[in-house]
Amino acid sequence: MAVAARAQWKGYIRFGEVTAPVALYTATSTSERISFHTVNRKTGNRVRREFVDGVTGKPVEKEDQVKGYELDNDRYVVLEPEEVASAVPESDKTLHVQAFISCDDIDKVYFDRPYYLTPDKMGAEAYALLRDGMRKKEVAAVAQTVLFRRMRTVLLRTHDKGLIATTLNFDYEVRSAKEAFKEIPDIKIKGEMLDLAKHIIGMKKGTFSAEEFDDRYEAALAELIKAKLEGKSLPKRAPPKVSKGNELLEALRQSASGMKPPAPSKKRESKASSAKGREKATRSTAAKAKSKATAKSAPAQRRRAS
User: Fold this and answer.
1) Beta strand pairing status for 9-15 and 18-26?
2) pLDDT tens, 168-192?
3) With contact defined as beta carbons under 8 Å apart, do 1 and 29 qualify?
4) Mean pLDDT across the chain, nearest whole number?
5) Dihedral angle over CA of 218, 219, 224, 227, nearest 10
6) CA angle, residues 94, 88, 148, in degrees to nearest 5
7) Are residues 112 and 153 both part of a single domain?
8) What does the alpha-carbon distance between residue 66 and residue 297 come to, in Å, rounded to a whole number?
9) 197 and 118, same structural domain?
10) Which residues, at least 6 apart from 8, have a Cβ–Cβ distance to it below 8 Å?
């Protein structure tokens, strides 16, 4: 995906007494996903969102909508827009590098959203100095600044010719792993079962390439839209069979006996490309079917209009 033409944020990065002008661009996008509108099933018209008073049921105009912090039993502390704005920390538009750390020092559960951090033309040399120094020392940088009205902690890592800036969740935003896993029973696997599991893992060991993984949900939606336009129904899929405790050993044996090493990367890339091609073709077909259906319905609509 090409970097967006418009920067999400512009400012400076400072390490020691060195300062360089930089810009942040979003590294991910959802614009290619299939999106839906909410429509009225009876009329086919799009539904309009409206805010109403929870007690009176009457619509509330935009100028009368304010932020409210709930205390208890529908009692709120009301905050005016200017009061909320006054809580936003002051910003000098500078990413202040606090420390350089080992790339593995931060648990990835704290990762929030990635951005491309690029240099301004006037600061390209200072930017390259930071990038190359970090690469040589094999470190990441932790920096802080105000981004999008909040003080944010950012992890900077070298990537290709530049730097990736990943915003980090605060500690209070990350749920406790101990709490999440507390219901998992204390089971120790050993013997043949563990050996077979290790064998399967070893045979499936490979490298990660994003191109190899397709968004099957998007492809399924495209197929569903195409089927609906053509008046067809998609077959229902049976849920996968869950391996029970007394069946695990046999399932492992069957898996190990039919196991093949991962295909070479070129073949995997070819497979990924063909899968992407099929997905694009499906979406294209759905678009054509939609256009055809619209064209067919136009004369009928004109007749009803007349």
Assistant:
1) antiparallel
2) 999 999 999 999 999 999 888 888 8
3) yes
4) 81
5) 150
6) 55
7) yes
8) 45
9) no
10) 24, 25, 26, 115, 148
Residue 189, C-beta contacts closer than 8 angstroms, at least 6 positions apart: 197
**What's the whole-model pTM score?**
0.66
Buried/exposed code over 45-79 (b: 16+ C-beta within 10 A; e: otherwise): eeeeeeeeeeeeeeeeeeeeeeeeeeeeeeeeeee
At 261, the pLDDT band (50, 70, 90 cuts) reads low
- Residues 207-233 have pLDDT tens digits of 777 777 776 777 878 888 888 888 887
Query: What range defines the domain where residue 92 resides?
Result: 9-29+88-173
First to last CA, the chain: 47
Residue 129 and residue 19 share a domain? yes
Q: What count of other Cβ atoms lies within 10 Å of the Cβ of residue 179?
A: 8
Evaluate whether 13 touches 19 at the Cβ level (below 8 Å).
yes
What lies within 8 Å, CB to CB, of 120 at 6+ separation is: 10, 20, 21, 22, 23
CA distance 219 to 281: 10
Three-class SS of residue 72?
strand
CA dist 226 to 33, 39, 85, 120, 251, Å?
Answer: 16, 19, 47, 46, 37
Position 35 in a domain:
no
Find out whether 157 and 164 touch, Cβ atoms under 8 Å.
Answer: yes
| The pairing of beta strand 139-147 with beta strand 150-159 | antiparallel
CATH code of the domain containing 20: 2.40.290.10
Residues 30, 38: contact at Cβ < 8 Å?
no
Residue 254 and residue 218 share a domain? yes
